[in-house]
Design brief:
The structure is a single chain. The protein is mainly alpha-helical. The protein has two domains: 90 residues; 117 residues, Tetratricopeptide repeat domain (Serine Threonine Protein Phosphatase 5, Tetratricopeptide repeat). Helix content is 69%, strand content 0%. The protein contains 13 helices and no strands. Helix 6 packs parallel to helix 8, helix 8 packs antiparallel against helix 9 and helix 10 packs antiparallel against helix 11. 40% of the residues are buried. The N terminus is likely disordered.
Length: 281
Amino acid sequence: MRRAGRRFSTFAVTGALVVALAACSNQVGEDEPLDAFTAEEIFQRGEYVLETSPRPEESLRYFREIERIYPYTDWARRAIVMQAYAYHRNGDYDEARETAQRFLDQYPGDPDAAWAAYIVALTYYDQIEDVGRDQGLTFQALRHLRYVIEQYPNTEYARSAVLKFDLAFDRLAAKEMEIGRYYLAQGNYQAAINRFRVVVEEYQTTTQTPEALHRLVEAYLALGLRSEAQTAAAILGHNFRSNPFYEDSYRLLTDAGLTAEAEGESWLREIYRRTIRGDWI
């Protein structure tokens, strides 16, 4: 059972194991001392409770007791990361993060270190609030997800972290868009442009980029900056021609007697050159 504790979602408990663990459950009462049981038996009981109980925290007793009764063993080491997982399952994010970090500090080279690092990242990611609120947790999630991706690139956790990183990154861009749209509605066009520019330059791989380019067309036209509006539309058309926002920008330019062509030498012109070279998006 060398890898039994690696990741709870991969346990795939068989019927024989369920029977065995159920028998173990009959042997160990909730308040019964565990000193007479082996570390493996206690560990299996913790796994069983964690999977079958509606209250994940009930499994913590078993994993803690392994640390107490069998310190400095492989079972004690694995019990730490299982505690972190149980805390996370229960929504106790601070405790999960502290326990997972304790595992990483004590066993940085352990095969379960990737899982522990991933749990740390999830404690931030799973708390990300809606776009309208402060995004401090999003930055923390991105930092720790990137750590998992870079330190453990060939693991399942890195693959999952990549997907979550992209979603969190998109959330930051969405926050910029929300503020930019507010300024645009208030007629504060320069402030709106500054926000949309951040999306185009720093978050260009997110789903927010087509709208950011379209809003730049709107804002620049409102300011009478025709060449900037045309260039923003040209970038939008080159990368997102089938996107509805390009249709909206095309209509705005046509109504103004303009075409979606790169003009002038603004910051957008450099973006357009990179787009043509294939260096952007």
